[in-house]
Write a structure and sequence with these properties.
MetI-like; UgpAE/MalFG_permease; membrane; transmembrane; MetI-like_sf
Length: 293
């Protein structure tokens, strides 16, 4: 094996420096500030702070509203991940079979990813608006009383659909790439051996998509935890009666609305630990079942 060396010893550090600087400024520095503030109790204007140790964490973990938000987050995360990945996989397999116009269909399916989360939320809110929404009108005609502003389950369903729709395009891209990487000879051999339809997909195609599925599962879980704030804020605002107040939205409510800076910082640290732990568990246990060849 030939060893590659850089004649200039400084060049590698210069090339890596921009990424390191961005990481320090936009990740490590805010994270360190959150940890520091979680150990302090500050007045609403940030003029005076007192060291309280882990008191903020004890207050948060003993708060019934926080435990309620935790349950809401788990339900929202599971539903959004399953819906976004399931629909994306279905669309990717359908497009992979299209012979004519593949590029056109793929372009249409990729467009939603360019929509901002808040805009995506407003689009679905308009369609399901109880007063003037087209889809809400169709539901009422079929005898379904629809009002996500009053019904917590309907509000949860609305933000799940909006969040999943926003992420489907991202998942679709990777599933299409994964399907294209599968040798066609394997599919043809399976067809010759008599494997048809769903059986061929679940026994041959889907196992070969395991690396892509594993990667997307990690990305979608992180997305549902953090990147759905704009959708929740624009559609339900955490309501009705905190039915859609996820952990990330509760951090905003307590910190920016109620000005409880210490407990808000403690919640953000807990949320960061949860996401890191979930990602580590997935890589530690689930990745063992993934076959890369």
């Amino acid at each position: 094996m030939q060893k590659v060396t850089f004649p200039n010893k400084v060049l590698p550090y210069v090339l890596v420096a921009p990424q390191i600087i961005l990481t320090v400024i936009f990740f490590f520095w805010p994270a360190s500030q959150a940890i520091y503030q979680s150990l302090m109790r500050e007045d609403p204007f940030g003029l005076r702070s007192t060291f309280v140790g882990l008191a903020n964490f004890q207050l948060v973990l003993s708060d019934p509203n926080y435990l309620h938000s935790f349950k809401i987050t788990i339900v929202f995360n599971v539903l959004t991940t399953l819906l976004a990945m399931g629909v994306a996989l279905l669309l990717a397999t359908a497009v992979d079979k299209v012979v004519k116009g593949q590029t056109f269909y793929r372009t249409l399916l990729i467009w939603p990813y360019a929509v901002a989360p808040a805009v995506a939320g407003m689009l679905w809110l308009f369609m399901f608006n109880p007063a003037m929404g087209t889809l809400a009108y169709l539901l009422r005609k079929n005898g379904i009383y629809w009002d996500p502003l009053l019904n917590g389950d309907q509000a949860m369903g609305l933000i799940v659909v909006a969040a999943a729709w926003k992420q489907i395009s991202y998942n679709f891209l990777f599933f299409v790439a994964g399907l294209q990487a599968i040798p066609k000879s394997l599919i043809e051999a399976a067809a010759i051996d008599g494997a048809r339809g769903a059986r061929r997909f679940w026994t041959i195609v889907f196992p070969l998509l395991a690396p892509t599925t594993f990667f997307l599962m990690v990305v979608n879980i992180v997305y549902a935890f953090f990147d759905t704030f704009g959708i929740i804020h624009s559609v339900t605002g955490g309501g009705p009666a905190k039915a859609t107040e996820t952990l990330v939205y509760k951090v905003y409510n307590d910190g920016f609305v109620n000005l409880s800076l210490g407990t808000s910082a403690a919640q953000s640290v807990i949320l960061m630990v949860i996401v890191i732990a979930l990602t580590a568990i997935q890589f530690r246990f689930i990745e063992k079942r993934v076959h890369y060849s």
